[in-house]
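Project standup — Tuesday

K.O.: blocked on the structure for the chain from last sprint. Re-posting the sequence here as requested.
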Amino acid sequence: MLKREERGGFTLVELLVVIAIIGMLVGLLLPAVQQAREAARALKCSNNLKQLGNACLLLESQTQTYPSAGWFYRWVGDPDLGVGAAQPGGWAFSILPFLEQEALYNYAGDGKAMEITSEQKSRAAEVCSTPLPIFYCPSRRSCKLYPSPSNAQCNVNTPSEQAKSDYASNFGASGWASSSNSVESWDAAKTRIQNNSWSTSSANGVIFDRSEVSVEAISDGTSNTYMIGEKYVSPDKYETSTSSDDQGVYAGMDVDNTRSAYALPQRDRSGLTQTSLFGGPHAGFFTMVMADGSVQRISYSINLDTHKRLGQRNDGNEVTIPH
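H.V.: unblocked you, prediction finished:
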């Protein structure tokens, strides 16, 4: 009796069918995997903002004011000048001690509030060159150093690369205006400190130039007022520098670290002429932390009037947060 010949493996046709099936399964699963990864990145971004908001509230409980946005972008944080109106650096610098970064906060200090030494400037440059993951949205870019402008700054030896931030404080709902306290020399700043001869900002947000806003000053309610949120950045400038994302995270007030609710928020895309906006890289929403520390995901389709009202601390209008 003849034995039937046993097959030794797949035919070419069978192999091609298996490969096609695997390809189809990968094609079906890949979008789901990408969505899951983005959901995880968006959650990390929300957690970053939650921690930043909590740090601001801890500072407020200690000093009775939210952090200030500083003097002007040519200044960075100086621990010898404390917090509030006297602090030249931005809000991110002021809250470092409440993010378990007290050593970084104090690194450039020398205990002399009315002096700026060459050693301080060098140490301040090291601080500016220290990126922290909490200031970066993982959906946008990695926690690392990015190019910074070559313009001379007042109390730091400006490094060629600095730590950045993907988050900005709420200036208010008026059109963006450069800081009226844009002093560009230490002698001028020292005179203003000693004589208290600073300009009074008309901003109606929570954190702006030389601000000292208390909880009581937010008459619209802390749960209905933006404090810090995601900022718009053009995708083609993530790895380089643009005029609204070129300064370091610890710099004083400018559109790099402080934004306004005067115009609608935008998802990151190229070609926008308005760049001092809130927004972000996520599809469908951007994330804000309110003045009470609560985190809210808000649709890009938010009504402009509602957005402006959420940006103002004391306009007296009722508002409901849209989702």
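K.O.: great, moving the ticket to review. Residues 2 and 8 are 18 Å apart (CA to CA). The chain is about 30% helix and 10% strand.
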